[in-house]
Design a protein that fits this description.
This protein has 2 domains: 184 residues, FAD/NAD(P)-binding domain (3-Layer(bba) Sandwich); 140 residues, FAD/NAD(P)-binding domain, CATH 3.50.50. The longest helix is centred in the C-terminal third of the chain and has 19 residues. The chain has 8 helices and 22 strands. The protein is an alpha/beta fold. Helix 1 runs parallel beside helix 7.
Length: 385
Amino acid sequence: MGKTVLILGGGTGGVVAGNVLRKTLKKKHQVIIVDRNDYHYFQASYPFLMVNQRRPAQVVRRLEAVQRKGIEFRKADVIQVYPEQHLVETSAGMLGFDYLVISLGAEHHLESVPGQEAVAYNPYSFEGVCRLRHELWYFTGGNIVLFISNLPYTGVIAPYEIIFLIDAFFRERGLRQQVTLTLVTPEPSLLPLAGPKVGESLRRMLEQRQIRVLTQAKVLSLDPVKRHLMLDGGISIPGDLFIGIPSHWGPSVLCNSNLVDDSGWIEVDPHTMATRAKCVYAVGDATGIKLPITQAWGPKAGVFTHYQAEVVARNIASVIAKKSPDFRYTGKAAGVVMATGFGSGRVASVKYYARPYPRVALLRSTRIAYWTKIAFEKYWLNCWL
C-alpha cells in the first residue's frame, strides 16, 4: 500500500522536498504540496526586482507546475496541525499523512515596531518589493534608511545585498550624490556569525560606498509624522524613505502544538530535522536551530533550507524503502553569493556547525561571483519548477 507524504509550504523547502521525494519514491506513493498561494516566489531575486533588474513575472512560477512531475498541489490555508493523529486541518478540509514535512517559513510581524507598517516598505514581501521598486524609480534625492527590526531574521545576507544594489542603482542613474544611505542593525557586528575579520571587511566595503552603518541599534518605533526612526539610547534617524526588515516569528498555526519551543520556533534535531513527533519533520525558516557551544541562533537562508529539505526527503524515501535513513544535514554551504553591485558579488562558504565557532569565508568581490548567482537563479526557476 502506498504512503502519503504531505508537505506544508511551496517555498524553497517544499519544492525541493517534493522534487526529491518524487524522484526517489515509487509512483504508488503520494507526494502532496499544500500552499495558500498559487505561485512560488523566488525571494533571492527580490533585491534585483527592487532595483529594476528584474520584472515581477521573472521571479515567480505557478506552483501547479509541480504537477507535471507527479507532485500533487493543493491550494489551501493551513489551519491546524495534529501531529499525533497524523492529520492537518486546512481550508480545503482535513488531510491525512504518513509523513509530514513542515516548510511554512517565518511570519512577518510589522506591528512589533510601532509605525513600521504605515511608513516602511517590506523588502521581504513580493507586494512590498513591487511598491518599493516604483518608489525608488521616482526617488531623486534624500535619506534612505534600511533597518532590521529584530533578531533572528531570514536571509542573512539580504540586508547587505539590498543596500549595495540600491547604491549601484543610484550610481548608474547619476544620482548617488543626492542620496544618503544608512543601514541599521541590532546585531553586535556585521555578519556576526562570520566573525570579526569578515565583519570588518564588510564594514570597510560599505564605508567605501559611503553607506553609514549603525550596529547594536535596537529599533523602538518609526514616527510617521516626523519620519524619524527611534532607537534606544535616545537616537533618532531622519529618513525620506524607510525600508524595514520585519520581525520574524514562528508559524502561528503551530502555537498550540507540541512542536515549538517557548520562542515559537519548531524544535528539530539539527542533523535530521526530525521534530518531537514521529514521522514529522521541519525545514527552513520556521525551525529554531541553535549553534553548538554558543547556542546562538543558526542562520536562516534559502541555501540552508535547500540542503535541509534534501536530507529530509532522502531519509523519508529511505525509511519507506525499508533502508537506513543515513543522510545528515551538516550546516555547510559553498558557493553562496552576496551581490555587491550590478556585475559584482562576493562568494561565501559557511560551516556553521563547526566547533568551537562557525567558520565563514567571504571572498573579495568579482564579476564571476555575480554571474554565478545569476546562473543559479536561472537554474532554480527552470529546473525545480
